[in-house]
Amino acid sequence: MTVSAKHIMDHLGDALVSVDLSFLGEKQSGKVRDLYRHGDKLILVATDRLSAFDYILGLVPFKGQVLTQLSAFWFDATRDLIGNHLLQVPDPNVTVARACTPLPVEVVVRGYITGVTSTALWRQYSLGERRIYGIDFPDGLRKNDRLPEPVITPTTKARDGGHDERITSAEIVTSGLVPAHQWQRVCEAAVAIFKRGQRIARRGGLILVDTKYEFGLNAKGEVVLIDEIHTPDSSRYWIADTYEARHAAGEEPENFDKELIRLYYAARGYRGEGAPWPLPADLAVEASARYMRTYEMLTQNPFIPGETPAGPRIEQAMRKWVKTADV
Question: What is the tens place of the pLDDT at every residue in 263-272?
Answer without folding.
Answer: 899 889 887 7
